[in-house]
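Input set for joint prediction.
Command: fold jointly, output tokens.
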Amino acid sequence: MAQKPGIPKGTRDFSPIEMARRNYIFDIIKRNFRLFGYKQIETPAMENLSTLMGKYGEEGDKLLFKIQNSGDFLKSCSDEELVGHNLVKLTNKMCEKGLRYDLTVPFARFVVQHRNDLTMPFKRYQIQPVWRADRPQKGRYREFYQCDADVVGSDSLLNEAELLSLIDKVFAELGINIVVKINNRKILSGIAETIGEADKIVDITVAIDKIDKIGLENVNAELREKGLSEEAISRLRPVLELSGTNDEKLAVMAEMLKDSEVGMKGIAEMREVMAAIDAIGHKGEMQIDISLARGLNYYTGTIIEVKAADVQIGSITGGGRYDNLTGVFGMPGLSGVGISFGADRIYDVMCQLELFPKNLGQSVKVFFVNFGQKEAMQSLRYANALREAGISAQVYPDNAKMKKQMSAADSDNVPYVAFVGESELGKDAIVLKDMATGEQTTLTLAELIEKLK
Amino acid sequence: MAQKPGIPKGTRDFSPIEMARRNYIFDIIKRNFRLFGYKQIETPAMENLSTLMGKYGEEGDKLLFKIQNSGDFLKSCSDEELVGHNLVKLTNKMCEKGLRYDLTVPFARFVVQHRNDLTMPFKRYQIQPVWRADRPQKGRYREFYQCDADVVGSDSLLNEAELLSLIDKVFAELGINIVVKINNRKILSGIAETIGEADKIVDITVAIDKIDKIGLENVNAELREKGLSEEAISRLRPVLELSGTNDEKLAVMAEMLKDSEVGMKGIAEMREVMAAIDAIGHKGEMQIDISLARGLNYYTGTIIEVKAADVQIGSITGGGRYDNLTGVFGMPGLSGVGISFGADRIYDVMCQLELFPKNLGQSVKVFFVNFGQKEAMQSLRYANALREAGISAQVYPDNAKMKKQMSAADSDNVPYVAFVGESELGKDAIVLKDMATGEQTTLTLAELIEKLK
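tokens >
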């Protein structure tokens, strides 16, 4: 026997039960995307490297999977270059294409390429795998799905409110209790500006994020180390001690930021978003969180992050508003706001909380035992009639021992087993066994369909 | 303005309307796969090259997209090797992974790798893209989806009958009239054996295929050129002149092949498959076609091909039985039968015959015009209530000119536009315009939901 074949590290096969669970999540997300008017697009797995390179930083360039040119991939490389081992240069000559790293850059490319066919604002959703040559580890894969929804071409904050409502609906339907954390980049800019340390916005945000874990004194010590003045540290204090309801937080911030134009713009935006999502109504908690700073270099307004309330795990969804999605492709000034559902983490949360419906592992509703050629023919006809009525059914293909057939039905978690044996032949009779109760009844085909429909 | 970005040749973006149409096809195929008890799996886009190489012939190896190793991809290559330009050797050293070329080899790898977790017979379906570095041309892409269903671990011919029934149901639901052509590899072997030219099976099959186009005399001339004896050519004549019903064809063949064991096995298998699919019932035509020889080196029993009856286009679905799916991975003796739906061609047929439902391009059912902040808040609440009832809705995010908003609704093919203006505020009233008739009515929210549910 040859060595068992395997798959590249960091990639996964999905078994039928895993697929059923993943589809359960994706179907709920898709259904809600559609209820909100997001339209699906797909882009190719391979993009030109010129589209991808330089969009994810130097580290990101290294994490792109590059596809070797077909045919003579060495034709642009001189012998000197080859033995020179300049990897970046040689890769550029041997590879013109790479696998997409996320759905955002391909979407930006899509918008620019098809801009004459798109009506703005354009609401799109996209659910496709992405690939990253990251070091694989628990919960981090080299191939994973992203589920993104974005609206581009509209500055209106109603878009933010609708995305929050969409998030709320998806998780309510999945049965996951959530806390949605909301921030605004302009408020963070306003804070840095107000305390006179506009260039230290990253250090300040890190400090705000650590306050619960390490306390005020340690945070201030860190800020001193980063070079913040004593005055700045003291002026930052109200932010570090921020607590209470959303309204209380907003009141403190508004007082603090009253002389910062950008800060007050952030406060106004936050107020409008919160008022709108409250007007719509929501089940999950919507919590202003000034420490939230994901994608700081990317987002320019609202920042959103979702945490599961009952499981210790990182963010399960995130997003925000950006001002210049397509500038890098020569189409400036296009603002948008989007979110991305983290399918793998949502899957883990659903498993941990046992939220998947119990019957997801079923292959069919009715499993016909095979008693031989004639009986199987009759069973095929019955199975066909069930399928016509939308009821899934299969006939065991071989006239195997009863024990083997029943064990196949068991392992497929089938709810009903049907017997059409010699004594049922020639009459309209099916013996149906309810696998949960063990109860057996004899039914006509019409009765069977009526019962299972 | 920078140069407009593009995508690699042979790949495609799918716009919302294209996605809606593709989903329409995939959803019908998936629904039927499930009705028949096929279970979904997914495998990674990247497989180890050791899994893929040598499985598709020498030409196929060249058409694999290979992924350059991360990090120092030159580390196994000596300078002599680099300047030696042995492309095959260097590729093997620079690339460990490739993109999957079809779904069959990954499925075989999956079955071997997970054999301890699978109950045989195993019915799986898989719908994923594949990649081939073919020269792109009209209708041939470098990235395209395959939709495969296979049963492995069962020799029963009921599997063939069920696959034929599945094909019949899918195309009936899509509205495409089909002719299903059915052959059996063993009959072809029997013919070659009977006329004493067992090694000329390919030439004989090609000749059978040409008879309608070039006539008996020309076919015989070609066979002479290929080196068939006059006696063989004369004994082949009944096959070339085969016509009539399936039963008539079977009778002629049975008489001709009566001394060939393998030929009579093929006839018996064909009779059993035809009897079973006739017992189940079918809408499309099931036609025995001795000229059908697709995948001659691969299939060992039944061969299936589907043509659209009303459109001139190649095969839109195909499949057959194979005897040794997993032997190449060290697990011999596993028989199976499978089919593959050609999604791109089915799409083209549906377009040509205008079979897609008219409303596929709709983004939402109800489009709320935005009359300003207060009105929009009220509209958001209404939209939320509609979505709770499963009715898709969106609020235009900006208080733009009416003309612009209506034109957005138009381009999205929206069936209903809702107006909540100043005079509707503070009362439970929505003005609804039916975009097909132009009719306007004023409704309460409950009436609106009732009307559209």
